[in-house]
């Protein structure tokens, strides 16, 4: 008979907290003999702080944040490990209706075309007289910040000189846009849909168009707790994996939207959750587009903690001056993500897992069967600018970004 464990997990009210919510509410945690308590927090800084002082054992957290903690970029910060991702995609870049009209006048038409939208934004900025556009992100060490910067710079826009990037809680983005405090933001759902339906905004592009099959939130684990409670952590990973299967089943999408909308979780009308859960994304007041890979909770090894993901985030930390590039820093970043723990925990479930722990990001142009411990399909995973990231050539990649 398995031992019973109690785990407290922090989360921020967003679509990509789904695996934790479903693990608790649909009984997957209980099946693994876990008492799972979920605690909602308003900010990522609070999530980090409560992990550091032991209020939480684990948390729904920004994918780059554990790396930043381990690199000593934040305090207080625990030593953290990432034994699982909580899905792929889920973000969008949303802009005011006025900015979108300007972008449309310069060629923007399809939010799923990141290159076209970026070129239009570049034209708008080139014609502005002095004042910079202001965009919101949720945290400096976030996928939102790095993918927004990647999209801007890949479109010929200097994110430090031509754009002002400010930090706001996710739930404040739409109101700040409506008030004119910002002209755009990069955030997870349901706050893009909220901006469109409730604040007259327009989605300019989506994460799945900037970097296909890219990570967003992960399971952050206090390293000390994880090291001393391997059985409890393995049980949690099994519960979350089974939750990912449930979330991926289209028959469950309406129930998932209703569940997430509840007062204990996102606490917003189900109409704001349904578009991103189903993939029928509301990109404008009168526009809907199907984005099948907008949020991927299970397919394409969506829960696997790729070391290449960790290393790409590290290269962006270096690119934007958050940390110096050294061999030690690179090792710390890569070792934050722990596919070994993932494999060990899920081995008993007989699931298909990648044979490698890293992959060349951007190399797969179509869905591709890959060698693994079972049937597994990856990709497409390309960057909007056609570039690739080889985790075995980090030095070259960083040097190339400096020249860009």
TrEMBL record:
Listed Pfam families: NMT1_2
Main subcellular localisation: membrane
Entry-linked Gene3D superfamilies: Periplasmic binding protein-like II (3.40.190.10)
One CC-aspect GO term: endomembrane system
Xref: InterPro entries: NrtA/CpmA_ABC-bd_dom
Source superkingdom: Bacteria
Annotated localization: Endomembrane system
UniProt entry keywords in alphabetical sequence: Cell inner membrane, Cell membrane, Membrane, Transport
PANTHER family: ALIPHATIC SULFONATES-BINDING PROTEIN-RELATED (PTHR30024), BLL4572 PROTEIN (PTHR30024:SF43)
Protein name, entry field: Nitrate transporter
The species this protein was found in: Rhizobium sullae (Rhizobium hedysari)
